[in-house]
Write a sequence for this structure.
């Protein structure tokens, strides 16, 4: 009976590892999707309404979920705490603290967007946002494919590894 309980624990642990890996892939794809939608919305707002950046960040922080919402809330908090530091500094610091699921090239695309925010005219900011959207769209599609393909691989490998460990121990 004790062996069966141990085997169940080993299999559950292995399955948890596979689910965790698949979840990280899905979380990255979801974060990129939300960032793409947020940057698209920012570009449209700059084209038509031209509200101040803190108001835009506040609206995004309230509407976005998960890491993305925390990112915009943190960027707003940092911008209000140190207005002389500028929008780019708060954007860069919030990116480093909040969007941990992203890869370096995805973070770099967001940094390039942040360089333009609050520094240039509305048209230049909008162009930077649209370029960031195009790059994030490509990253998003790649992340979706990885989440589908590698998510299944992680689950299969975790189950196979857990089963192999159980067979070796029995």
């Amino acid at each position: 009976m004790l062996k069966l309980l141990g085997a169940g624990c080993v299999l559950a642990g292995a399955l948890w590892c596979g689910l965790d890996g698949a979840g990280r892939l899905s979380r990255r794809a979801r974060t990129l999707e939300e960032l793409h939608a947020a940057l698209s919305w920012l570009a449209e707002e700059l084209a038509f309404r031209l509200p101040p950046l803190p108001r835009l960040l506040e609206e995004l922080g309230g509407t976005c979920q998960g890491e993305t919402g925390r990112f915009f809330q943190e960027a707003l908090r940092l911008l209000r705490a140190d207005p002389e530091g500028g929008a780019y500094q708060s954007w860069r610091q919030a990116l480093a603290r909040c969007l941990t699921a992203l890869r370096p090239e995805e973070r770099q695309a967001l940094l390039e967007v942040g360089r333009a925010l609050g520094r240039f005219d509305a048209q230049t900011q909008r162009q930077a946002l649209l370029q960031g959207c195009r790059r994030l769209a490509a990253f998003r599609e790649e992340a979706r494919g990885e989440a589908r393909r590698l998510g299944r691989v992680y689950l299969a490998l975790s189950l196979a590894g857990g089963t192999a460990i159980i067979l070796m121990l029995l």
The chain is about 85% helix and 0% strand. Residues 3 and 170 are 8 Å apart (CA to CA). Residues 2-169 form one domain. The first helix runs from residue 2 to 48.
